[in-house]
Amino acid sequence: MNTAFEYTDSYSLHLKIPEKENCPFTGELCPFFKPLHYRNFVSSKFKFNQLKKNRMKNLMRTLSVFMITISGLHAQLPEPGFVIDGSTAIVITDPQNDFLSPDGVAWGAVGQSVQENNTIENLETMFKLGEKYNIPVFISPHYYYEHDHQWKFEGTLEKLMHNITMFDRGDQLNVKGFEGSGADWLPRYKKYINKDRVVVTGPHKVFGSESNDLALQLRKQGVDKVILAGMSGNLCAESHMRELVENGFEVAVVGDATASAKLPGLDGDQAAQTNYKMISSKVFTTDELVKELKMHGIK
Question: How far, in Å, CA of 232 to CA of 99, rounded?
């Protein structure tokens, strides 16, 4: 019997047979006779295909249930809310040239996000809201002095910042060269920051406020609630949010008054916005915050 098998892919097995086959009873060629093994094969193949279809249906059902569950969990995330009252302050991280100026050393990484979020204008709105509603404003800056470049080990972005001289100040007691440097404030913010009502804390050194006196300054002024904004969203701003929450502050974040690095395969802004939603009590847009204060003022 001239029967041949041909594998065409990982799922199908095709059987090549002659158009006619000798009948086992008469020995003559019979155009209607199909060998038994062929019929068995066809039956097996049919069962195999049915099994594939059933498994695919089960997989699709499982995926559907999974997606519905995830969507439901997201929809069911509680929203604690955030009431702005007399114990509330605005905290802004790193409103400095190296992040926010097109000439800054980090602009190539964060510039896209800054422009997409309208961050520069939204941060200015934060300063204006502080003045209009008499909400105290605290600035947590990022500076590196000469002795900071003597560190024996660094994380990835610490090393990058040191390599590109980001936020460099030279001697901490000498302001020579500070004006207009990458560590200086973005010029449009200076008229707000230089006023007596704004507190500039000591510099944080890596990302979070653990290494400066922000929490102390807030507590000393009776602040229990923080509206957080600034740069960089997934690093310093997010780290400040986490540390403030750990220290017992109630924190809201203004998501579009931040911006983060966008690099090939890495979207810092997306990561930051996810964590703001999961950790803070409330995520405002700048417009939402403006409307909230306009409608309800300070409680």
Answer: 8
